[in-house]
Amino acid sequence: MENSKALRTWLDDMNLPHPLVIAGPCSAETEDQVLQIAHELKDTDVNYYRAGIWKPRTRPGNFEGVGAIGLKWLQKVKEETGLKTAIEVANKTHVDLALEHDIDMLWIGARSTVSPFIVQDIADALKGTDKIVLVKNPVNPDLSLWLGAVERLHSANIKKLGVIHRGFSTYEKTKYRNIPEWQLAIELQTRFPDLPLINDPSHITGKRDMILDVSQTALDLNFDGLMIETHCDPDNAWSDAAQQVTPKRLVQIMEDLRIRKETDTEAEFKSQLSNLRAQIDIIDNQLIETLGKRMKISDSIGEIKKQRNVAVLQTNRWNSILGKMILEGESRGLSEEFVLRMFKAIHQESINHQEKIINS
């Protein structure tokens, strides 16, 4: 994207003393519910009030949103609280209705980002708008698809652009609802540092008690803001109850977050160091998770060896692994000594797992 520096202007113009905060219920349920939450958020750090009007559900039969009537409720939110409003749009009709009701911020959801046809239709409907338009990452970890959606909007002469990182779907069972794959967001940030980057810890975690930790990681990685689902009665929310927090809890989260400002050289140094350390923490967690998966496979190998009465140590296999890993390590700047020490430790742990199974 040419002239990407202009994309940050809308955020810089806000001159916020804290990260951008977009908050509100996953779904607009009733007029009273929408207004109650808004009034509880109006004197907090929240800059934009979000609410799901149309809810794309994975399977039919679930609550799919109140529809256009919810836009009138958001107009009342703006009138009564002064909060700017934000909704998700998935087609031209949504866009036209959102513009008609003067919604301030629009975002394209993860399920829509996967389709260039949908994104192009939305871009055409928004052509030349002065509204802020954000693009959530696609469901699967595809950076090109994510950036392609932004480029389509940029080509439609939409100047106020940004992206939302909400994590990626996976078949594997993890502690996250959607695994963060932080490295993709980091790569996007590296390639387009002037593209505002918002984190959505609600959809990444799927659990309200993890939102603070994920939000802190995002800020340590220099994200520009947070989108956090907020409900006055989360346990009885009509959608995504487990990941929503009360307005009171949101205020506490914002107070507990360590927000680092780059006001001088020392602060900039600390911010850069914190960013790099946060990246290392992410990779370290991935290493532990990967090693855990490796040992589970070793357990399965131990079961097979036990059934066949085969010795745990297979020397030829071990020597073959070492040779390949030494060469692979050298190609990535790792010394032979380090690779040997690391894989000997991994191999010994694998042997311990298999011997425990065979001798059980």
TrEMBL record:
Pfam family, one: DAHP_synth_1
A Gene Ontology BP annotation from the UniProt entry: chorismate metabolic process
Oxidoreductase listed as a keyword: no
SUPFAM superfamilies: Aldolase, Chorismate mutase II
Gene Ontology molecular function terms on file: chorismate mutase activity; transferase activity
EC number(s) stated in the UniProt entry for this protein: 5.4.99.5
Keywords assigned: Transferase
Keyword Ligase among record annotations: no
Domain Chorismate mutase, first and last residues per copy: 267-358
Name of protein: chorismate mutase
Organism the protein comes from: Poritiphilus flavus
